[in-house]
Amino acid sequence: MGEGFNEILNNSLSKSSYYEDKQDTLVHIMNPLSSDLNVMRQTLLFGGLESIQHNVNRKRQNLRFFEFGNIYTFDPVKQNDDDPMQAYKEQYHCGLWVTGKRVEGSWAHANEDSTFYELSAYVENILRRIGVKPGMIVRKNSENAIFSAGLTIENRGGKKLIEMGIISKKLQKQFGLDNPVYY
Fold first, then answer.
1. 180: number of Cβ within 10 Å
2. CA distance 159 to 17
3. Which helix (H) or strand (E) holds 74?
4. For the segment 51-91, what is each residue's pLDDT rounded down to a tens digit?
5. What's 66's DSSP letter?
6. Helix/strand/coil (H, E, C) string of 148-181?
7. What is the C-alpha separation between 130 and 155, in angstroms, rounded?
8. Using alpha carbons only, how large is the chain's radius of gyration in Å?
9. How far apart are CA 76 and CA 41, in angstroms?
10. How many C-beta neighbours within 10 Å does residue 109 have?
C-alpha cells in the first residue's frame, strides 16, 4: 500500500462482547477455546484497535495500519432447513487506521497531528487508483455509532462502498487510547 502504512493480520475469531447491538447476526463458534474467541468477526475495526492498543502500550504512538480480511454475518431471516449455509455471508473488506502524529521530529516541518482529512485523502487516492471517478459516488454523513463523526461513500445506485470516521470516545476509552483514531 505504501504511504507509511503497515499491514496487520488479525484473527477472524473475536469477542461477542464487541457486538452488543448485533447479537442476533453473530456467527457463533460451536466449541470456542475461550470467551474472547467465541464468534467470527463482523468488522475489521476491533482487531485493528487491539493492534493499535498493543503498539501504544509499547510507546509506539504514530501508527498507520491496513488490513485485508473476511468478515462474517448471519441473517436469521434467510435461515432455511434445505440450505443451512444460505443464512451465512462472508465478505472481503479492507480497513485503514490512522492515529498519532502525521509528522514528528522533522527538521523541515513542524509536528502535526493526524486528522480525518488525512485518512480521507488516502481513501480518495485508493478510489482514484481503482478507477472510481468523483462523479460516480455520493458522500453522506455516517449514522454509525462507532464514530463520533463519520462519512459514508455510496455509488450512484445507493450501495455503500466506504464508511469512515473518527472512532467514538467510548470505544477509545474501552481500548485505553488517548489519541483520536481514524478508521
1. 17
2. 28
3. strand 63-74
4. 999 999 999 999 999 999 999 999 888 888 788 888 899 99
5. E
6. EEEEEEEECCCCEEEEEEEECHHHHHHCCCCCCE
7. 14
8. 18
9. 17
10. 10
What are the angstrom distances between the C-alpha of 147 and each of 84, 97, 152? Answer: 34, 13, 11
Total count of residues recorded for the chain: 183
**Residue the block writes with cell 468478515:** 71
Positive or negative CA dihedral for 67, 68, 69, 75? Answer: positive
Q: What DSSP designation does 39 have? A: E
pLDDT digits (tens, 9 = 90+) for 121-155: 999 999 999 998 888 899 999 989 899 999 999 99
**Interatomic CA distance for residues 28 and 34, integer angstroms:** 12
Q: How far, CA to CA in Å, does 179 sit from each of 5, 22, 125, 135, 148? A: 18, 27, 25, 34, 14
pTM of the model: 0.89
DSSP 3-state of 38: coil
Q: Judging by beta carbons within 10 Å of its beta carbon (0-12, 13-18, 19+), is residue 179 exposed, middle or buried?
A: middle
User: Helix (H, G, I), strand (E, B), or coil: what is residue 122?
Assistant: helix
